[in-house]
Amino acid sequence: MAIVICRTLIVYFALLITLRLLGKRQLGEMELSEFVLGALIADLASHPLQDMGIPMLNGLVPILTLFCCEVLIAGASMKSVRLRTAFFGEPSLLIVHGQIRQREMRKNRFTLDELMQELRSQGVSDIGKIAYAILETNGKLSVIPDPASAPVTAAQLGLPTGDSGYPTIVISDGRILEANLRHAGLDRAWLADRLREKGKARADEVFLMTVDQAGQIYFAGKENGT
Amino acid sequence: MKRELTALLLLILLIACSVWNLARLDRLTDRISLCLDRAEAAAGDGDPEAALKALDDGLVLWRRARDYTNVFLRHPDVDAVSDAFCDLQEALLERGSETYPAAFARLRDRLARIDYMEHPSLGTIF
What we know:
The complex is a heterodimer of chains A (226) and B (126).
Chain A: H1 2-22, H2 32-50, H3 57-79, H4 81-88, E1 92-96, E2 99-100, H5 102-107, H6 112-121, E3 130-135, E4 141-145, H7 154-157, E5 168-172, E6 175-176, H8 178-183, H9 188-197, E7 206-211, E8 217-221
Antiparallel strand pairs in A: 1-2, 1-3, 3-4, 5-6, 5-7, 7-8
Helix pairs in contact in A: 1-2, 1-3, 2-3, 3-4
Chain B: H1 2-44, H2 48-64, H3 66-72, H4 75-93, H5 100-118, H6 122-125
Helix pairs in contact in B: 1-2, 1-5, 2-4, 4-5
């Protein structure tokens, strides 16, 4: 048991350090410690199931140890900025006022092709119109456009805006979601009226129906044969 | 903060359990080794009945700890010790057999091995 704990701690920190040194590109949308945890737990859990000669405890102890490490590291890094930087790194500025920072690109092993791909996926084609492009600690690229190229907002134009609120699903694939209906302050009588307006007799003829707090309805009837 | 404290307590509990496990295993192997010492001395004195009796005492200790050993130790290692007990019994039952010293050595070696494999050291961790 002591060996299992020692080995788990060593492998956990070895993976954490290795992936930290590899940079942010590998992470996708997870934080570094989450990625390490995900990579380890899936494999650990399967071993005692596959090999009956391994006690169940040898699978459970590492999982519990990893859980403790993750919670403690996350908690400690919330308290200490220095620790957070050590474990998760810092965001890297890849573009500043239209200028690509090549040293940061090399440091993060981020190629020009990857940068262009990320920018295109965010609808940016002109690097010169970017104020900042930041490679976040979870590997995502955040792009802040130059103020002159940023989209105009309703507030800048002085246009009134209304908050329609969160849309609630009231019918999902022919099924009335009673809890959501009540939560939206509506009832079956209201629903029956709306269905009649849309030319439907029953809820099972509806694929999706949502209603937001402003009373706006989205309606999608079922296709024939579904 | 409550989550972090729970995790810290859980980690301390796991470490405490592993310390208990080491002490439990040491106690078990020490007691079995004492039985083996008595059995080996009796076999050396040409008294196979006394040797078998002492070996049985050791086997009873080993079998009583079955729940513990199967939860904490790798099952092939547990089986190896059980097999070594049977081999030694067989060697002692064949009176006049010269194979029992080797059977004693094998059983001691297997006991020492499970003890060694549970203790943290450079060799066992890496």
